[in-house]
Amino acid sequence: MRVVNVTADAETFTCNAYLALGDRPVLVDAGAMDGVVDAIRDHTDALDAVVLTHQHGDHVQQLDAVLDAFDADLAAYDSHPRRDTALEDGDTLEIGDEEFEVVHTPGHADDHVAFVSDSTIFSGDVVVHDDGAFDYGSFGRTDMPGQSREELIASIREILGRLSNPVEHMYAGHGGEFHGDVRDVVETALERAEKREPKYPE
């Protein structure tokens, strides 16, 4: 499966929006970058679906534009006016050419989900490789209203319980993609989150 970060050239704040190419072309998150539709069209003329890790603005600002341009289905955990498929924990879905399990991972957002296959994780914002706060294992912020460090810690533990060995590809909502021992990165993020110290000290 080939995965392309179609918002990699963004000049304004956005999440990473990943185009998974294969038997079923799927976009994981739509991002907030103007021109994302053209960036997708650089790689494919067809898009079967957009799947959302969560509905924070930096992940969905360009959602309508993408859905309109490709007549794609929308799969999301939480309700959305354009949702075609409601995702629940434990569901499976095809992304690219792999089967992924949906893992409900609240803490950063109540509707947050990650997608885990035998080789790959799309982790959204719950756990990332690097994000300016930490390298090689960081975690989503939990200092905003409605967020919970305790729920986030439980979610990272849940991800570890669902990872097969070895998962080698990690595509997170922010920072760089990672190829290697994903379990070790996630365990490092968990250790840091469990210290319960502010992620961004003042």
Structural overview:
By secondary structure, the chain is an alpha/beta fold. The protein has a single domain, classed as Metallo-beta-lactamase, Chain A. Helices cover 22% and strands 25% of the residues. It has five helices and 14 strands. The strands form three sheets. Strands 1-2-3-4-5-6 form a six-stranded mixed beta sheet, with helices on one face. Helix 1 links the parallel strand 3 and strand 4. Helix 4 runs antiparallel to helix 5. The protein is globular. It starts with a strand and ends in an 8-residue tail after the last helix.
Shape: globular
CATH architecture: 4-Layer Sandwich
CATH class type: Alpha Beta
Let me know the CATH homologous superfamily.
Ribonuclease Z/Hydroxyacylglutathione hydrolase-like
Radius of gyration, Cα only, in angstroms? Answer: 16 Å
Major beta sheet, strand line-up: 1-2-3-4-5-6
CATH-derived topology: Metallo-beta-lactamase, Chain A
Q: Output the helix-strand order.
A: EEEHEHHEEEEEEEEHEEH
Backbone structural class? alpha/beta
Which percent bin holds the helix content?
A: 10-25%
Distance between the termini: 41 Å
